[in-house]
Amino acid sequence: MAGLKYDKIVKYVIRAKCEGPLHIGSSIGGKEDVLIHPVDKSPFIQASSIAGVFRSYVEECMDIKAEVLFGADHLDNDKSTTEQQSRIRFMDAIFDLSSVKMELRPHVKIDRKTGSVFEDKFSGQKFNMEYVGEGAEFTTAFYLYVDTKETQFLEDAVKEMLGAMKAGLLQFGAKKSSGAGKIIPVSVKERSFLMSKEQDRKEWFEEESLSDTAYEEVIHKLPEVTDRKNKYTVVIKGKTEGTILVKGLSVSEFGEGVPDSENIRNAKSEYIVPGSSFRGSIRSQMEKISIYLRKGFLIDDSFGKAGENDEEGYVGNLIFEDTIIGNRKENDAVDLRHRIHIDKFTGGVFQQGLFAEKNAFGDMELEIHIADRNHPDATLGLLLFAVRDLACKVVTLGSGFATGKGFMDISEIVVSSHDKKAKITYQENVQIEDDANMIQYAMAALKEVSQ
């Protein structure tokens, strides 16, 4: 902390847990592997990643300048560089191994031009990505170095950051657009050390060995933070018309009476539609609609664009959450469905062509967020067309649509934006409640938007 003037240090100790899957990529091994701590042999989040997430939130959503908290490099008149020191020091977040349950989820790279896998490479188009499962917990800490003359507004800014984390507005790691990376604090403890006091200096020297009673629990004091990142949230309520099958990587048992494939489950063994699968189905339909409307550029706005470097690529504005399918116990009791694989040339059954599937069914509540960037109003309009097609059974989820799987009975679609709300109800007739004219505004924005 050389060159930084401070006479007070505030230490925050955070206990947090994953509210969904988390992937922090490893630099060793495959890119699909989770980062493992070299000493503790447990998954962890690097301090630099934590700092990046908080800094990004401050830049996007807070009134304070990010460099005040996180520092910056300035170019002087003589073209030399002056470094402004960060006032926050983050620590690695190492997961408690006893709370960690890993997930392995299949993914596939799609060529958007052909609608199939990339053909320019012979391998690597289908890959399996490792995630830290929901419920995993860790304890980490960070330190705020301040001058007592300016301490209050800096401490308030830190608590606003933590309030945003408590509200579920921060995502860590990869696959954020598929709902991964949401981490919620369950405990936030604080301890201040005044360097002008001898006792505080002594305790600061021994701060790693201080007992829990030396800290104050402040999670209940964190401010209620409103969502300034997302402009819209779309919730689709309904149930499966029949059954659904989003195939997982493998089954947990082998032998007679067990399926060859079953619906994917999360770390809590709940049957789910992963955010990535839901995202793929909706994207495919949005692409078709955007081509018809001659608004193809909205697909990159909605789902992001890969680039040769950071300047060319950018993230989209749609985030799809994982969706739990029905009741776990009821789905555990679902009977197997036996099928055969027919050779189209001979009309006979392939050798070893008899297989069994274990499908899922039940109520579902699908959730999509639209971030306040990249034409969010037009994105909402385009998204509502695709969701309409899901309700009309033009779009299905998962595999097996030719055998009647993946169709949804939609009961209602709710669009919310801060204090405004619109609802589309599907009964005998479609009913729309939209006092704020959000849907009409979104459709007008879709019609008028241009690249």
Task: Describe this protein's structure.
Residues 16-183, 258-408 form the CRISPR type III-associated protein domain. This is CRISPR type III-associated protein domain-containing protein. One of its GO terms (biological process) is defense response to virus. Keywords: Antiviral defense. It holds the Pfam family RAMPs. The chain has two domains: 8-221, no CATH class; 230-448, no CATH class. With 451 residues, the chain is an alpha+beta fold. The mean pLDDT is 87. β8 (110-111) and β9 form a beta hairpin. It contains nine helices and 24 strands. The chain has helices spanning 47-61, 66-70, 151-166, 198-205, 275-293, 297-303, 328-332, 376-391, 438-448; strands spanning 8-18, 44-45, 72-75, 81-84, 88-90, 93-95, 102-108, 110-111, 116-117, 126-132, 137-146, 183-194, 216-217, 230-240, 261-262, 272-273, 318-320, 323-324, 337-342, 349-358, 363-371, 408-417, 420-426, 430-433. The strands form seven sheets. Strands 1, 2, 5, 6, 11, 12 and 13 form a seven-stranded antiparallel beta sheet that branches. A six-stranded antiparallel beta sheet has the order 17-21-14-22-23-24. A three-stranded mixed beta sheet has the order 15-20-19, with no helix packed on it.
Helix content: 10-25%
Q: Tell me how many strands there are.
A: 24
What fraction of residues sit in β-strands? Answer: 25-35%
Mean pLDDT: 87
Number of helices: 9
Distance between the termini: 46 Å
Class from secondary-structure proportions: alpha+beta
Shape: globular
Can you summarize the main beta sheet? 7 strands, antiparallel
